[in-house]
Specification:
This protein has two domains: about 45 residues, no CATH class; about 270 residues, Kelch-type beta propeller (Neuraminidase, 6 Propeller), CATH 2.120.10.80. A hairpin with a 7-residue loop joins strand 7 and strand 8. By secondary structure, it is an all-beta fold. The chain is elongated. The protein has no helices and 35 strands.
């Protein structure tokens, strides 16, 4: 066995240079780096090449340069908040800037007047499952205007829940013509067309909402699940599994969140509307924790977020908007008003540009 022992290695305060390389096991331990418009000659395994012509990064592996992707991961939220579905006889869509406070502005109209919608987004397109008749509408969040037909759900139903991982839009549960449903179906948000079967909830449920952390999606409470929370892995269609429980059985609530937390606000419990806000950490199964309160009890409302702030339309046939900072426990604060009052609304968000 050979031993290399160095007590002191100094070069007068500047970096030490090994001009003939420094090898371990006969191989150089340093990693080569080249910035050029053409592929480097005689590269070594692990070398990095910045292709200055095409502005791409490559690493030399298995005798060839392989591109290192720098694409941003998909998102399912944005700074533009969207609220729609104010009444069965109304097709209004509102929008506002989540980063500030203030009143909402008219965005355009749904293809048909409706409430009891489910919604989701990939940060660019927002989808509204008009669940009473199975139709899905969509808008481009950065361009105000009327919605366009996207396709159809597998089953028409009301009061379903929507969520997304930025690639797939998922719609769960609802009340079909024959009664409560446990159906989960999904679409690829960038491709218009009809939904595909995903699996089933653990129980039929409606009047509830969902959120995701881009890997897991959760469906919380409702008439059917009660205090229960279901979860799915969005990239793998299959039946939902039990996640844990809310603080109490609640329906007609709203839900949103950030990349780690789901926040559930308001709703209907034991014959009364409530103002409780509760949350879960989506990556860890378990029960909900108290977050704070809305300023007033509310049900039939909606929620959206930009993954920092959450904004709630408290419902109750009112026009009130309130907000929280998702990672800071506490009570909600006044945000502004929607252009009209309503109930059974839905909320989502996306980019403003």
């Amino acid at each position: 066995m050979s031993t290399l022992k160095i007590n002191t290695l100094s070069n007068g305060g500047s970096a030490i240079d090994f001009p003939n390389s420094f090898n371990v096991g006969g191989k150089a331990i340093e990693q080569g780096y080249t910035s050029s418009g053409t592929e480097p000659s005689s590269p070594s395994t692990g070398d990095i090449w910045w292709d200055s012509t095409n502005e791409k990064i490559y690493q030399y592996l298995n005798s060839e340069f392989k591109e290192i992707s720098t694409a941003a991961p998909p998102v399912w939220y944005g700074d533009r908040g969207i609220i729609a579905g104010f009444a069965a006889s109304d097709n209004t869509i509102n929008y506002f800037d989540i980063t500030t406070t203030g009143n909402a502005t008219d965005f355009g109209n749904l293809t048909v007047s409706s409430n009891n919608l489910a919604s989701c987004s990939n940060g660019t397109l927002a989808l509204f499952g008009r669940t009473a008749n199975a139709v899905i509408d969509y808008i481009t969040t950065a361009s105000t205007g009327n919605a366009t037909d996207f396709g159809d759900l597998t089953v028409g139903r009301q009061n379903a829940a929507g969520l997304s991982d930025g690639t797939y839009g998922v719609f769960g549960g609802g009340f079909a013509g024959s009664g409560p449903a446990n159906v989960i179906d999904y679409v690829t948000i960038t491709t218009t067309g009809d939904a595909t079967d995903f699996g089933n909830l653990t129980s039929t449920s409606y009047y509830f909402n969902g959120w995701s952390d881009a890997t897991r999606g959760i469906f919380a409470g409702g008439t059917g699940l009660g205090a229960g929370i279901d979860y799915i892995t969005i990239a793998t269609p299959s039946d939902a599994s039990d996640f844990g429980d809310l603080l109490f059985s609640v329906s007609q609530h709203s839900a949103t969140g950030d990349t780690t937390r789901a926040v559930i606000a308001g709703g209907f419990y034991s014959g009364f509307a409530v103002n409780v806000i509760q949350y879960i950490t989506i990556a860890s199964t378990g029960d909900a924790t108290d977050f704070g309160d809305l300023s007033a009890s509310g049900r039939w409302g909606a929620a959206c977020s930009n993954a920092t702030r959450a904004v709630f339309h408290i419902g109750n046939q009112a026009n009130t908007l309130e907000y929280i900072t998702i990672q800071t426990l506490g009570n909600a604060t006044d945000f502004g008003d929607t252009t009209i009052s309503g109930a059974f609304t839905t909320g989502t968000s996306g980019s403003a540009a």
